[in-house]
Every structure is written in structure tokens, then in C-alpha cells.
Specification:
Elements (H helix, E strand, L loop, with lengths): L58 H9 L36 E2 L2 E2 L28 E5 L2 E4 H19 L18 E4 L2 E4 H25 L6 H8 L1 H11 L5 H9 L5 H22 L6 H10 L1 H6 L11 E8 L7 E2 L5 E2 L2 H20 L4 H11 L11 E5 L6 H7 L9 E6 L2 E10 L4 H24 L3 E3 L16
Antiparallel strand pairs: 1-2, 3-4, 3-13, 5-6, 7-10, 7-12, 8-9, 11-12
């Protein structure tokens, strides 16, 4: 299977694309967004279908695809919420080793008005050998529900891995170096600077608080886990044990230690996942009541027109996405020419030969049934695009700017009609195009609706968190040692 967004190939069972972060699962968009995360640098123009990305091969990505039922609104992962403020995990309940007045802890004096609660420690990682102490220690409390160090570490490292899955190589541009200890790297926030370990810890705590608040409300309303999710939870240890063997580990404990650190047990993981699964299912029922009228959407766009204009979204007839089929005829041989920038390119002679072949195939289609189905059959037979050959050259829900310029401009021509065909040339060769359809809604409407609904979802979730205050005992938190480079 290929990613629906960037067409990078995905390993079997993996739904979150390691290249662009898009969640290809059918349930994408039906999960709880966590706390705000930094914007990724603007990605380069997405490569067209013939330019697939690399396979991931990460064992944890495969595990999460089968177990973790979370995908953030619009992108995938746990870390998408672009319109909120930097999360304030709690009003911290500090242990007796510190005082609210001086912020003094472990011989260090902090200025509470200038620091975040998480900055009580500059490094939470256990410095000794073997299993870190205090894995059963309660480090956060919401009502009668508690979070232990063991479960926190599972959440913390999942947050870290998912961040890398979402941003990929762009994480470097955000300032994250996976070869260095996280606590030695600075991450800038609106509240000043923190280190990356503190950042991921705050994200993990914010994620837990959201799921736990929704799980508490679910229980209060008599909502229980579905039979399928309960069965998944019950079989989790056996399934992960099989995964451990498949990945060459001697035991499940060995795999958990590699992914989450020494001392994190399957019970820690299951306890955390039980909260995630219940909170997530209850959240899905709440989403049914979150809607936006056409009038609300248009008003929202008008009020934020300047913001949308920065990203090139204008109030015009550009569709939100299109569906298109194509047959790629790739010139024969190595590239023999150069483009305007002096880069290697196919020569005019090579392109002319490909153009002749493409026209011949298009004429063959026109002389036959000339239907979408017959075009798809020819695509399967002739296309050089391995990413779409099995689907008859079909790409669905293509957004503006996703494909290379010539391909994109043809698809998003406002005069384009279903059934239109043509030859389009790009750096990959000659494309025989067949326009299938455009989305019902325009780009501006869909963008405004998505942001408006995200805001309503965030308000809904935050109202649940506000209704369930919780304490975090930062001085009792111990993070495990994990080789961060293995997830890079």
C-alpha cells in the first residue's frame, strides 16, 4: 500500500506514513488531538507518483499501527493542534522536596514566575544502570485515577516516536538532533526556553490528561469499551509477544525495554492503552455533535482571510481536492539532456519519442469504449508509475500543490471537467491524463471548515480537562534510557 498523501510505500499494517505523517487509516480524523506542537517547515513540493519515498522498517511504527488507536485531526499522530496555546499540564503538586515560594529543589533555586513547572528538573533520566527505581510511583493524579512512572514512560516514548513519524527529516529543522541527549537540546516556546526532554514530557502529560478526562466522563456516563477494543486489549500481550519474536527479540520484555526503557512492563503499557482506548471511543461519540453551518464556515473564513492568504488560500472556485487517473510514459534510457537550471533531464529527442507513444495510447483509448474503466485498464498495462499501476492510474483526494507543477496545473484548471483527457509533460516523462472528478467543496471552504471544527473540538476536549483538575508530581518523575537514534 502507498500513502494516500505523498505516495510513499508503506509496510504491511502501517497506516501512519513515515515520510509525510499522513494517517492512511480509515479512522483518520476520529481521534483525540493532543497538545500543540511546533509547525513543521514548509515541505518541498510533494513528489509525483513515480517518485516514492523510502520504507520505514521501524518496529515500533508497526506495533503502534496495530495497537494505538489515535490519529490527529488532518495529519496523523498525537501532536496536531495548531490553534492552541503552549500546554499548561497542571497546577503542579510538588513533593516535599520543593516549595512554591522559592521553587527550591535539589539545591537549585528556580524563579517560578519565569519557569514552567516541568523545568523543576533539567534532566529526568535515570542515571544508573539497569531498571530505573520508582516505576510504580504515582506521578500524576486525576480524581481517583493515577499515572505511574511506568505508564508515563510508555506515553513519553510513544510521543517521541510519533513526533519523528510525523515530521521525519524535518525534525532536524525544528532543532531536534536524535544523536544527542534530549535534555541537552534547547526548544524555544512562547514561555521561554525549555529542553526537548521537557517538551516531550509536557506533551505526554497533556496527552494523558486528555484521554484520562474523557475516560472518566465515559465511566460516569456508563460508557464502556466496545467488545472489539476489549478483545484487542485482552490479546495485546500475546500479539506483542509475537511481534517481539518477529523482530528478533528474546522476549516481550526485551522489546518493551528497547522501545520504552528498562522497567516498563506490559501491564504499564496496557494500563495506559486502556485509558487511551476508552477515552478515544467516548471522544468519537462526542464528535457526532460537533458541526458547523455553511454560514459559520464562511464567517470564519472572512474573519481569518489574512491568515489563509498567507498560505495561498483565497475565496475562489479551487476545489479542495481532485481525483485523477494518469498513464506515465517514461522516456527510454538515461537522461541525456539538462533543464534550465542545468540539472539532468531527458533530451528533446527522448521526450518526443515518449510523446509519440503516449499519443498512440490515447488514440487507442479514444477508438475504443473511451470510458474511465477502459482508461484504467490501459494504465495498468502501460504506465511506468508503479505507485498507481494496481489502481489503474488512479490518485484520489489529490490536493493543490501535491503533484509536480505541470501535473498540478492541469488538474486544478478551473475549467477542468470530468472525462477531460490530455498529454502533460513533466520531468518524469509524458502523462496521459484523465480527469475523474473534483470535490464538492472548494479549497477555501474545506480549509475554513477544518480549522473551525478543530477549534470546536479543542474547546470540547479542554472543557472536559478543565472539569477534571489533576496534579503532577514532577519531582517524582523518572524517565528511562532509550537509544533515541534508533527511531531517527
Amino acid at each position: 500500500m502507498n500513502c494516500k498523501h505523498c505516495q510513499s510505500p508503506l509496510d504491511d499494517g502501517v497506516t501512519i506514513c513515515p515520510n509525510c505523517g499522513f494517517d492512511n487509516a480509515e479512522t483518520a480524523g476520529d481521534a483525540i488531538p493532543a497538545a500543540e506542537t511546533p509547525e513543521a517547515p514548509e515541505a518541498t513540493a510533494a513528489a509525483e507518483a513515480p517518485k516514492p519515498g523510502k520504507k520505514s522498517g521501524k518496529r515500533l511504527a508497526a506495533i503502534l499501527a496495530g495497537v494505538v488507536l489515535v490519529a490527529a485531526v488532518g495529519v496523523g499522530g498525537w501532536l496536531l493542534l495548531r490553534n492552541g496555546a503552549e500546554p499548561e499540564a497542571t497546577d503542579p503538586a510538588l513533593s516535599s522536596e520543593s516549595t512554591e515560594e522559592t521553587g527550591e529543589t535539589g539545591g537549585e533555586t528556580l524563579a517560578p514566575q519565569e519557569t514552567l513547572a516541568v523545568q523543576i528538573n533539567t534532566n529526568y533520566t535515570y542515571q544508573g544502570q539497569g531498571v530505573a527505581p520508582g516505576m510504580d510511583e504515582v506521578v500524576a493524579q486525576m480524581g481517583d485515577k493515577s499515572l505511574t512512572n511506568g505508564a508515563l514512560n510508555a506515553c513519553y516514548w510513544i510521543t517521541y516516536y510519533d513526533f519523528l513519524n510525523t515530521y521525519g527529516s524535518n525534525a532536524t529543522y525544528l532543532g531536534l538532533d536524535t544523536t544527542l541527549p534530549l535534555h541537552e537540546q534547547t526548544y524555544a516556546t512562547d514561555n521561554g526556553e525549555m529542553n526537548w526532554q521537557q517538551f516531550f514530557l509536557e506533551q505526554a502529560l497533556a496527552t494523558w490528561s486528555r484521554y484520562q478526562a474523557l475516560a472518566l466522563e465515559a465511566e460516569a456516563n456508563g460508557f464502556t469499551l466496545s467488545e472489539s477494543s476489549q478483545a484487542q486489549l485482552d490479546s495485546m500481550e500475546e500479539e506483542l509477544g509475537s511481534s517481539a519474536a518477529d523482530y528478533g527479540f528474546d522476549s516481550l520484555d526485551a522489546m518493551l525495554a528497547a522501545d520504552f526503557g528498562e522497567g516498563v512492563t506490559i501491564e504499564d503499557y496496557k494500563n495506559f492503552m486502556a485509558v487511551v482506548m476508552l477515552g478515544n471511543e467516548y471522544y468519537a461519540t462526542l464528535l457526532e455533535d460537533i458541526t458547523a453551518t455553511a454560514e459559520e464556515v464562511e464567517t470564519y473564513f472572512d474573519e481569518n482571510a489574512e491568515y489563509f492568504a498567507v498560505y495561498g488560500v483565497e475565496k475562489d472556485d479551487t476545489p479542495a481536492y481532485i481525483n485523477v487517473r494518469h498513464i506515465l510514459i517514461q522516456p527510454e534510457g538515461e537522461m541525456e539532456g539538462t533543464d534550465e537550471s542545468g540539472n539532468a533531464a531527458y533530451s528533446e529527442e527522448q521526450m518526443a519519442a515518449a510523446r509519440t507513444e503516449a499519443q498512440s495510447i490515447l488514440d487507442e483509448w479514444k477508438a475504443g469504449e473511451a470510458t474511465e474503466e477502459s482508461f484504467g485498464a490501459l494504465a495498468t498495462e502501460y504506465t511506468a508509475d508503479t505507485g498507481s499501476a494496481s489502481t489503474g492510474g488512479l490518485y484520489e483526494q489529490v490536493t493543490e500543490g501535491q503533484m509536480v507543477t505541470a501535473f498540478n496545473d492541469w488538474c486544478f484548471d478551473t475549467s477542468r471537467q470530468p472525462g477531460d483527457t490530455d498529454l502533460v509533460e513533466s520531468e518524469y516523462g509524458v502523462h496521459i491524463m484523465y480527469f475523474v472528478s473534483a470535490s464538492e467543496y472548494t479549497q477555501w471552504y474545506s480549509a475554513a471548515e477544518s480549522m473551525l471544527l478543530n477549534e470546536k473540538v479543542e474547546e470540547m476536549i479542554q472543557s472536559r480537562v478543565d472539569a477534571h483538575p489533576f496534579d503532577v508530581y514532577y519531582t517524582d518523575i523518572v524517565l528511562t534510557n532509550v537509544d533515541t537514534t534508533t527511531a531517527s
